[in-house]
Specification:
Oligomer: single chain
Distance between the termini: 50 Å
Largest sheet: none
Mean pLDDT: 88
Strand content: under 5%
Low-confidence stretches: 1-15
Helix content: 55-70%
Structural class: mainly alpha
């Protein structure tokens, strides 16, 4: 393990903004891809994008602006929607359009759905119309001129049209994404949240019409019977659609979801499940599209199916999967969604002796997932810390354990860290995964080794760490850790004496200051206040210092210490009363 262990990738050249490109092509006489717009209309749309990005003084100005734009597109809805720049402007403004404007666009689009679903640009406008129609159909303020029922009927019409033409549209890039938006919008979910792994479940308070639920079921029922179902898993486009469908089925039909997961496990992820050679990877890991399906299946499966997927695809192969670039995320997903302690212990034992190899390949995310699962299931915590220390050569001799925290922050071995100067620790880019692992370790049942490593650091290094953008979060975890002892917290407060002015003036150090201040008792708070008011206290005029000075009431302390003490006691009593009420 030599040099920096973080997984570095080459810097990518930044793409030009859409607006810059639009201006550049206009100068050359090209007025967007797709349908032809005249020069004046094209330039008008470019100016609209510029004006919109600058923002509005009030809501009234925004409404007037949007209404004016849609007046310009009247009777030209299709031409504008099929143009690259026109499509971008319309898609951007539709969420703010009134019901009459939406109706005009829906009427126009539903008259020629077959063509527009596959159009490179108009399909994005269609997606926006579907999203807004679903929202309008459930709004409380039912408009008599364009009622909720109109939008509900429009959504049902579009989604059923796509369902009836599923064989044609499933393999079309643009129509495929339109169908995905349909499924998500019917359930009130968003593509952005689904992609991030949040918001997969529909909120209990959210009302979903029965007709919408039935349409989603119908998509699921029809697709699982396709003779070419297995082919869907082998293409990134159709695999992406299946992932969305599976997540939607978690809210609609759990029996049908189980059928999908069993079919995927038996026909797509593995073959000959019995006596399978553990040295050979199952089909689940041989293509990106199937790997993504596997990860989604792990994420949404029931405990029983999770165990079957783990046993068939992962057990006995975890080290190989964790050290392979294309599959290490699957291992992370497996660990993150493990719910049984016994199962996790088996996974941990399989990976325990290979931490160093995993780190050397740059897959620190696997180590982070292990740390977080150790914390969540309160399992294998001592072994995890010991193996991690050994991986960074910090375990023996015992004196090296003092450097464990800084090794983790830099995610590098003891010998390499010793060669790096700590003078710029405040501004150095630390390892995100390394600092996140430390935060998890401070929440372990016995975090004494990490606590001691922090308290054994040189004061200046610790101050610089607490002033670092990532290091400041370690302070939070230290002071909030359930198993960090009271005496250890007091030691930290005392150790930082003499650095509080510097902490208070730093952007991230001020966050650390607030965290430490929150755990200090009255006696140590008085000592901190003495330090803050020492000399001319010019620190309090800095950008972040002003905020801290206001929070600790520095002016009152300088004026009258007794009044400050009394105000402090009053605020403590109020906080205690509030806490008792909220219990």
């Amino acid at each position: 393990m030599s040099g920096d262990l973080t997984n570095r990738r080459p810097n990518r050249k930044r793409k030009k903004s859409f607006l810059k490109n639009a201006r550049k092509y206009a100068k050359k006489g090209f007025y967007g891809r797709g349908s032809e717009l005249d020069a004046d209309t094209y330039q008008y749309f470019v100016r609209i994008m510029e004006a919109y990005r600058q923002g509005f003084e009030n809501e009234e100005d925004q409404i007037m602006f949007i209404n004016n734009v849609f007046e310009q597109t009247e009777n030209k809805e299709l031409d504008c929607s099929c143009n690259q720049v026109g499509c971008r402007v319309i898609e951007m403004l539709l969420p703010f359009a009134n019901r009459n404007i939406l109706k005009k666009f829906i009427d126009t689009f539903t008259s020629d759905l077959r063509k527009l679903c596959s159009d490179r640009f108009a399909s994005h406008v269609l997606e926006a119309l579907i999203i807004q129609s679903c929202k309008k159909s459930l709004e409380a303020n039912n408009d008599l001129e364009v009622p909720n029922q109109y939008f509900k009927d429009s959504v049902i019409k579009i989604t059923k049209f796509l369902l009836n033409n599923l064989e044609d549209y499933m393999w079309d890039t643009y129509a495929n994404h339109v169908i995905r938006v349909c499924l998500l919008s019917l359930l009130g979910l968003s593509q952005e949240n689904i992609t991030k792994g949040v918001g997969i479940k529909v909120e209990e308070k959210q009302f979903i019409p029965e007709e919408f639920l039935e349409i989603v079921k119908e998509y699921g029922t029809r697709l699982i019977l396709w003779p070419q179902f297995n082919e869907l898993c082998n293409s990134e486009l159709t695999s992406g659609f299946l992932q969305i469908l599976l997540k939607c089925l978690t809210n609609v039909d759990l029996k049908l979801l189980k059928k999908y997961l069993k079919k995927l496990l038996n026909e797509v992820f593995t073959t000959n499940m019995e006596d399978y050679d553990k040295k050979v990877l199952p089909k689940a890991f041989l293509s990106k599209s199937v790997i993504m399906l596997l990860e989604t299946s792990v994420e949404i499966s029931t405990p029983k199916l999770y165990t079957q997927i783990y046993a068939s695809c992962f057990a006995g192969r975890l080290v190989k999967l964790a050290t392979t670039r294309s599959t290490n995320f699957s291992v992370q997903k497996l660990l993150q969604h493990c719910k049984e302690k016994v199962e996790f212990e088996a996974m941990f034992d399989e990976l325990a002796n290979d931490f160093q190899q995993i780190i050397e390949t740059g897959h620190s995310g696997v180590i982070l997932a292990l740390a977080q699962t150790c914390k969540r299931l309160t399992a294998k915590q001592g072994s995890f810390v010991q193996n991690l220390m050994k991986s960074f050569d910090c375990f023996e001799p015992e004196d090296r354990q003092k450097c464990f925290v800084i090794c983790m922050c830099r995610f590098n071995k003891f010998e390499n860290v010793k060669e790096i100067s700590s003078d710029n620790l405040q501004k150095d880019k630390l390892s995100l995964h390394g600092t996140l692992i430390l935060e998890s370790l401070l929440d372990f049942n016995k975090p004494i080794k990490i606590v001691n490593s922090i308290l054994d650091m040189e004061q200046q290094d610790l101050k610089n760490l607490f002033c670092n953008s990532m290091g400041s979060h370690i302070t939070d975890s230290f002071v909030k850790g359930l198993f960090v002892g009271e005496k250890s917290r007091e030691k930290l407060v005392r150790k930082m004496m003499g650095t509080y002015q510097e902490l208070a003036t730093s952007k991230y150090g001020s966050r650390s200051f607030e965290a430490i201040w929150s755990i200090a008792n009255l006696k140590t708070k008085l000592q901190i206040m003495d330090e803050l008011s020492h000399k001319n206290a010019s620190w309090s005029n800095s950008e972040h210092g002003k905020i801290i000075a206001n929070k600790v009431n520095l002016l009152l302390y300088k004026r009258n210490k007794e009044d400050w003490k009394n105000s402090f006691n009053k605020s403590n009593k109020s906080a205690k009363i509030l806490a008792d009420i909220l219990k």
